[in-house]
């Protein structure tokens, strides 16, 4: 069984990182320096969140948010046209909604506040602390990648200031009998630059290899899983690929938790192709063409399309 590479961020890793990002687009990072109490703390808060009574979760449902923030019930999110079997809390940068005029780009409507349950004040502080650490680690990986791609390490930095549209999700996958279906989340790519994932010990995350097989991203204590998003595929004209991945539902009686961070740029970022060194450019095979998932270079447009597609009820209510 093929396994994913481990990149240790405490020692030189440029060549290894480039190989992992090019060959499969999915790898583990160790030596990331995220404090252990935050790693355990985020799952503890997450368990408390999803154990709240249904009416308390409904009070922070994402249907109440034009910015797609808040709680999503099991079965209401769709990937590849089928319902995902997971519940989640979507969190973005904590900002006031803007007052927009008819000339403003629609995607600016994605800026706005989060929804937090009043009965769990620690959820907010722990989540925002975890978000800051996840952003630090992902940016470190992105800088190493920029360097390995023949750019200056700060090449991408301008798009990742305090207005970057980063996003995180606390996710709970309830177990079920395989006869009831097995789509925890359906096969998809992530649309930022990089995604960073903390998973518990249950397993179920699978990654598609270039030849179409699915391999397990087995939980590895002390690591995060990092994967390439669509924006890096565009920026490298396919030298790096946004890789398909999915989660298989845990068996009945088992619960799986994960925390996912998506390193996204400012909404007004426009992704331009990098000037790759010739030996890398020679291996760029172009951006994947998928009529169901057109990749737009304007980040805000791409992000809005993704949100509208995966949360049809929110789209219907706020974005008609
Ligand atoms: O929960 C996981 O392990 C993966 C989640 C994921 O891929 C996503 O939400 O984009
Ligand atoms: Fe994903």
From TrEMBL:
Name of one Pfam family that matches: DIOX_N
Top-level taxon of the source organism: Bacteria
Keywords, ordered alphabetically: Antibiotic biosynthesis, Iron, Metal-binding, Oxidoreductase
Cited InterPro entries: DIOX_N (IPR026992), IPNS-like_FE2OG_OXY (IPR044861), IPNS-like_sf (IPR027443), Iron_ascorbate_oxido_reductase (IPR050231), Oxoglu/Fe-dep_dioxygenase_dom (IPR005123)
Gene Ontology terms, MF aspect: metal ion binding; oxidoreductase activity
Domain Fe2OG dioxygenase: from-to ranges: 163-265
Pathway as given in its UniProt record: Antibiotic biosynthesis
One of the protein's GO biological processes: antibiotic biosynthetic process
Family: Belongs to the iron/ascorbate-dependent oxidoreductase family.
Protein name per UniProt: 2OG-Fe(II) oxygenase
């Amino acid at each position: 069984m093929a396994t994913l590479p481990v990149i240790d961020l405490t020692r030189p890793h440029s060549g290894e990182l480039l190989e992992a990002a090019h060959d499969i687009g999915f790898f583990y990072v160790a030596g990331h320096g995220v404090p252990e109490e935050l790693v355990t703390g985020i799952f503890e808060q997450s368990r408390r969140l999803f154990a709240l009574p249904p009416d308390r979760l409904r009070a922070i449902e994402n249907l109440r948010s034009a910015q797609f923030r808040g709680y999503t019930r099991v079965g209401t999110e769709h990937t590849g046209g089928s319902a995902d079997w997971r519940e989640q809390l979507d969190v973005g940068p904590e900002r006031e909604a803007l007052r927009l005029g008819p000339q403003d780009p629609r995607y600016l409507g994605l800026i706005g506040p989060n929804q937090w349950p009043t009965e769990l004040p620690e959820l907010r502080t722990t989540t925002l602390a975890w978000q800051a650490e996840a952003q630090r680690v992902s940016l470190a990986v992105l800088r190493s990648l920029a360097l390995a791609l023949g750019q200056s390490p700060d090449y991408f930095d301008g798009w990742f200031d305090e207005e970057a549209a980063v996003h995180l999700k606390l996710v709970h996958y309830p177990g079920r009998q395989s006869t009831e279906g097995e789509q925890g989340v359906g096969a998809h790519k992530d649309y930022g630059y990089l995604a960073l994932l903390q998973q518990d010990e249950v397993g179920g995350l699978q990654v598609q290899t270039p030849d179409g097989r699915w391999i397990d991203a087995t939980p590895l204590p002390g690591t995060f899983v990092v994967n390439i998003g669509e924006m890096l595929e565009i920026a490298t004209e396919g030298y790096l690929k946004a890789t398909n991945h999915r989660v298989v539902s845990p068996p009945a009686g088992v619960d799986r938790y994960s925390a996912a961070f998506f390193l996204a740029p400012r909404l007004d970022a426009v992704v331009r192709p990098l000037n790759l060194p010739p030996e890398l450019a020679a291996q760029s095979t172009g951006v994947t063409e998928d009529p169901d998932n057109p990749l737009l270079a304007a980040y805000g447009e791409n992000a809005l399309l993704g949100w509208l597609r995966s949360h049809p009820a929110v789209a219907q209510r706020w974005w008609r």
